């Protein structure tokens, strides 16, 4: 897959400064972003994700270092020129009334037409194309205040596409969404990066989703700074554990995802394979019961044919758990 470096940061410090004080949030970042890649910025609360994103999009000035966008220093861009290079989708809920979806997406053309500018046939074509790419043709004509959170987020992505910028930056684009909508938005952004030759950079708290979809990850926190790589390389190097592992959660190197460490105080024997056995094992772990015991007196068998405990059949996992609790209470 062909990719090109579109953004480079060199020796970048981010933070806030006034006449009396300078507060450095992130220090000495050296990194690049590429076209045709979806890059996720991950880190705990307070790590400086929003500050970094605002600095890269010129909402905040850098405290130190250089930001190169498409081969030019960020600070040499005029506001109008920058609006043709970077599209920004923020996490704040829209407070827009009496504007249709078509009109809002059309505002993405304002860098070319002016805020109240006349839309040419080409501008209308780009708006139509952006709406189709995001798959929101069915929302055309709807008023923005009638949209769900997921629908609004798609409209804002279509607006960013209508700007025809090579870079799109998003701050928590999956906030407020249910899980299927989160997946849909992330897959949409990944698809757009590839099919439209975009550099897509977003901050997110959806760690599990980012690890499955992102091409690259920027791990950010104050003790460790910034570490960059594919999710798989970062996992193999132990970076996921270093940045995110806490009591009660462990990074599983086999799956490349995090799992919850349940406190297991009892044990029982479980035999069987497949999804039913896996779900039984999961439910027992949540109840503090390990399935690693070699107990000939108490034995669960679970597979597609059914669930049994010591030869007695159970219609579902809920009833099995009651039976296991009764047995363990007697031990």
What would you say this structure looks like, in words?
The protein is α/β, with parallel strands linked by helices and 331 residues long. It has two domains: 5-245, Rossmann fold, CATH 3.40.50; 266-330, no CATH class. Helix content is 34%, strand content 28%. It is built from twelve helices and 18 strands. The chain has helices spanning 49-56, 79-82, 101-106, 110-113, 121-134, 149-162, 179-195, 207-213, 231-236, 239-244, 275-286, 317-330; strands at 5-17, 22-34, 37-42, 64-69, 72-73, 86-89, 167-171, 199-203, 216-221, 225-229, 249-252, 257-260, 266-267, 269-271, 289-290, 299-303, 306-309, 312-314. The strands form five sheets. It has a six-stranded mixed β-sheet, with helices on both faces. Strands 2-1-4-5 form a four-stranded antiparallel β-sheet, covered by helices on one side. A four-stranded mixed β-sheet has the order 14-16-17-18, covered by helices on one side. Helix 5 (121-134) crosses helix 6. The longest helix is centred in the middle third of the chain and has 17 residues, at 179-195.
């Amino acid at each position: 897959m062909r990719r090109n470096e579109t953004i480079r940061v060199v020796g970048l410090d981010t933070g806030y400064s006034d006449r009396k004080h300078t507060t450095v949030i992130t220090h000495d970042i050296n990194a690049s972003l590429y076209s045709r890649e979806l890059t996720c910025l991950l880190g705990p609360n307070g790590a400086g994700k929003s500050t970094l994103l605002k600095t890269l999009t010129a909402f905040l000035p850098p405290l130190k270092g250089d930001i190169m966008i498409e081969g030019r220093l960020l600070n040499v861009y005029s506001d109008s020129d920058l609006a043709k290079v970077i599209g920004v989708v923020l996490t704040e809920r829209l407070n827009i009334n009496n504007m249709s979806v078509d009109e809002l997406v059309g505002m993405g053309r304002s860098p070319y037409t002016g805020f109240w500018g006349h839309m040419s046939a080409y501008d209308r074509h780009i708006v139509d194309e952006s709406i189709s790419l995001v798959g929101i043709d069915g929302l055309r004509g709807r008023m923005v205040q009638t949209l769900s959170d997921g629908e609004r987020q798609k409209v804002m992505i279509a607006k960013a596409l209508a700007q025809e910028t090579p870079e799109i930056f998003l701050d928590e684009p999956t906030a407020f969404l249910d899980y299927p909508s989160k997946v849909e938005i992330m897959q949409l952004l990944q698809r757009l990066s590839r099919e439209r030759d975009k550099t897509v950079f977003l901050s997110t708290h959806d760690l599990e989703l980012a690890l499955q979809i992102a091409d690259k990850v920027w791990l950010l926190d104050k003790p460790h700074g910034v570490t960059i790589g594919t999710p798989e390389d970062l996992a193999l190097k132990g970076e996921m554990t270093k940045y995110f592992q806490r009591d009660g959660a462990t990074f599983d190197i086999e799956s490349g995802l995090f799992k919850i460490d349940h406190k297991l105080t009892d044990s029982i024997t479980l035999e069987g394979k497949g999804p039913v056995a896996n779900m039984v094992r999961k439910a027992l772990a949540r109840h503090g019961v390990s399935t690693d015991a070699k107990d000939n007196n108490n034995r669960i068998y679970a597979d597609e044919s059914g669930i049994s405990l010591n030869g007695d059949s159970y219609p579902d996992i809920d009833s099995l758990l009651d039976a296991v609790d009764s047995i363990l209470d007697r031990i």
